[in-house]
Request: fold
Amino acid sequence: MKDAIHLLLLRNETNKFYLSIFGITLLKLCYNEYMEMIDKEILDCKLCGELEKLRCNSLQIGKSKILVLGESPSKDGWIVSGRAFYNLDGKLQASGKILNKLLNILGISIEDIYFTECCKCIIADRKRLRECVKNCRSILLSQLENLDFDIILPMGQYPSEVILDRRVERLKDIIGKEFRIKIGDSTKLVIPIYHTSPISPLSFKGNEPIFKDLKSKLNLL
Ligand code: SF4
Reply:
């Protein structure tokens, strides 16, 4: 947050003037402006070629201390509904239902978490996912830098690789393990989980012990 505001103050002398008058209100305005800058960066970015872009903000702000990190936006998900894991009919998608059941173990729901994807564009060809996720890393880190969460739960291979900044040969070797990373000035706890897609037999069964363990360790709200 401090860096974002500093950046904006450097960019804009008017902001500096208003900051001295309105204090905390302007901090929020600066923060919104910072997020709009990131959204614009995503819209303008062509690092991976001409890809389909999000039609809404790519970040859900939560009230718990947990951020769930997905892969890339699906065509019929929150980019059209405006609500993470919901479709246009206001129904939870299948992967959202499983994630919600897991979050219920912690006494929270999908509405309470921070959520974003590590790849900001819609990737039709999954073979390109690793490359695009890697290209998107700096945008993701800028987006996460000033948010008030403590724990990141990356869902599956690519979100885990990008947040841990390393290649993962065998996902099962890191699932449920604890890692610590620095984002900006703060240290975050990272615990990789299986993707909650219903296609995976481990989406609930493999993740349930991780969430039970998390519940016993943490006061999340
Ligand atoms: S996936 Fe990320 S890096 Fe690639 S074009 Fe989209 S915004 Fe840019």
User: Anything to note?
Assistant: The longest strand covers residues 66-70.
